[in-house]
Write a structure and sequence with these properties.
- Belongs to the kiwellin family.
- By secondary structure, this protein is α+β, with helices and mostly antiparallel strands.
- The protein has two domains: 30 residues; 157 residues, Barwin-like endoglucanases.
- The protein contains three helices and eight strands, in the order αββββαβββαβ.
- The strands form two sheets. A six-stranded mixed beta barrel has the order 3-7-4-6-5-8. A two-stranded antiparallel ribbon has the order 1-2.
- A hairpin with a 2-residue loop joins strand 5 and strand 6.
- The chain binds 2-acetamido-2-deoxy-beta-D-glucopyranose (3 copies).
Length: 188
Amino acid sequence: MNACISTASLVVLLIMISANRLCCEAQQCRPSGRIIGKKPPAGECNQENDSECCVEGKTYTTYKCSPAVSSNTKAELTLNSFEKGGDGGGPSACDNKYHSDDTPVVALSTGWFNNMSRCLHNVTITANGKSVVAMVVDECDSTMGCDQDHDFQPPCPNNIVDASKAVWKALGVPHSQWGGLQITWADA
Ligand SMILES: *[C@@H]1O[C@H](CO)[C@@H](O)[C@H](O)[C@H]1NC(C)=O
Ligand SMILES: *[C@@H]1O[C@H](CO)[C@@H](O)[C@H](O)[C@H]1NC(C)=O
Ligand SMILES: *[C@@H]1O[C@H](CO)[C@@H](O)[C@H](O)[C@H]1NC(C)=O
């Protein structure tokens, strides 16, 4: 009788463990594919402000998802121009407009951009003990890259908040350090 109960509870325990694993694996964000870099045609790929260009033959990982969003989601802050002729390429995806780099605007990795659902909504970005509210205006495409539409730049990693210089200024980051910073963000 006792042996029976403990066998039954062992089975229940095993089921719980495997169900738990299924749940949490499903929540993790895994790559969706790969792109092999093509050499940008002459004159393509604006390297203004350290934008990276695709390297011929290099493998780039693509993602349709991003890490789960919380009240302090970890991300990498990068620098982007949202002005006409800047390194952001065409006008912003949310409103089909260019934006002054003196306004706090950002592009989010595909998963966080979430099919336009954060468009023109604000996020609070925190680093260095300072916070700034910025408006989401564009997508940093994690699913594609190394083509004309993406100015021959690699696909975006899935944890990027790509920000105008106004955001960097507001966070009090010295100009010489603009470009890459660990931050946290939340929906404002
Ligand atoms: C980007 O580079 C251009 C040209 O080098 C410069 O004028 C501009 O101030 C830079 N933008 C930022 C945000 O640093
Ligand atoms: C994204 O939104 C559009 C328009 O609301 C909808 O038609 C489409 O199915 C959505 N795509 C995904 C992947 O949710
Ligand atoms: C986002 O912030 C801007 C500037 O503070 C404000 O004008 C705008 O109404 C805010 N948008 C939303 C959706 O709250």
